[in-house]
Amino acid sequence: MTAPVAEIAVSLESPAWVEALPDIEARVQSLVQLALAGVPDDVPDGPLELSVVLADDETVRALNRDWRGKDAPTNVLSFAALDDEEAPLVEGAPLLLGDVILAWETVAAEAAESGRPLADHFSHLVIHGVLHLLGFDHQDEDEAAEMEGLETRLLASLGISDPYQDEDDRR
């Protein structure tokens, strides 16, 4: 399967991302394309547009507080434009999927805590965030199983192990 044409804006708000993963912008581009190509039945026709913001905990904490009522940082937030039923659709213009925002300190700490390479954990979270933009969710067991299964298959295509496996099973 091939991904639809997508304009992917990458915003580097925290220099720590580039220090840890020097190829981060190219990595984001390829991960987003992989996620879009991996779900052909769910991807709308036509050109797409989305942004990935590589931020810090402070930025993500403020967004999480203001939009979700949770005054704490989290690893990734997704703001899906497709959730906005009043969003204008302009014929011929790219369809805005939304924004994925990642928090440097939280993502790095989670990777270290789990013993997973930062690049692998980052890859998982970018794919996870993009799938949210496409309408995937994990609010109930069936939705979670579908989303996690898709994430696991996409990551496996990159040689990355199942992020949902128990740590003991990974060793």
UniProtKB/TrEMBL annotation:
Single strand-specific metallo-endoribonuclease involved in late-stage 70S ribosome quality control and in maturation of the 3' terminus of the 16S rRNA. The keyword Lipoprotein does not apply. This is Endoribonuclease YbeY. Pfam families: YbeY (PF02130). Binds 1 zinc ion. Its cofactor is Zn(2+). GO terms for molecular function: metalloendopeptidase activity; RNA endonuclease activity; zinc ion binding. It comes from Magnetospirillum fulvum (Rhodospirillum fulvum). Zn(2+) binds at H128, H132, H138. SUPFAM superfamilies: Metalloproteases ('zincins'), catalytic domain. Belongs to the endoribonuclease YbeY family.
